[in-house]
Write a structure and sequence with these properties.
It is a single chain. The protein is α+β, with helices and mostly antiparallel strands. It has a domain of about 90 residues: Glutaredoxin (3-Layer(aba) Sandwich), CATH 3.40.30.10. Helices cover about 40% and strands about 15% of the residues. A four-stranded mixed sheet has the order 2-1-3-4. Helix 3 packs across helix 5. The longest helix is centred in the middle third of the chain and has 14 residues. It is globular and about 60 Å long.
Length: about 130
């Protein structure tokens, strides 16, 4: 085994810069100008899968409009969906968890009101 020379501070700085600087395609994808959704959920209540499924639904529907969806573990039965500083859905206020259709409509109304949602927009009653 050949002993390596210790890296100089300049070499370490270059490595750090490469690790921290995102590739240009990632920077375009993670545009900070696009709004971000936050889903606060109670892991003790078993709501991680529900939160992850709703995040996937929102990211699929609003791939070009949202900057991301963040899942945040919370306490005491919380399930709160917010867009920036605006609360879109609060389980304690509504007394239930959100449906994907309803959450898509709430996000759409804030982010891109003219976007059609297809079958998610149709009324539950015919």
């Amino acid at each position: 085994m050949v002993p390596r020379e210790p890296e100089t501070p300049d070499a370490q700085g270059d490595i750090f810069e490469i690790m921290v600087k995102p590739p240009s395609d990632v920077a375009e994808c993670c545009n900070p100008a696009r709004p971000r959704v936050e889903i606060r959920y109670c892991p003790r209540c078993g709501w991680l899968l529900r939160a992850a499924w709703l995040a996937q639904e929102l990211l699929t529907t609003f791939a070009d409009e949202l900057g991301g969806v963040t899942l945040v573990p919370a306490d005491k039965g919380e399930f709160i969906v917010s867009l920036g500083d605006r609360v879109l859905f609060d389980r304690t206020t509504m007394g239930r968890l959100p449906e994907a259709r309803e959450l898509k409509q709430l996000v759409r109304d804030c982010v891109c009101p003219d976007k059609p949602l297809g079958h998610s927009e149709r009324s539950l009653t015919r």
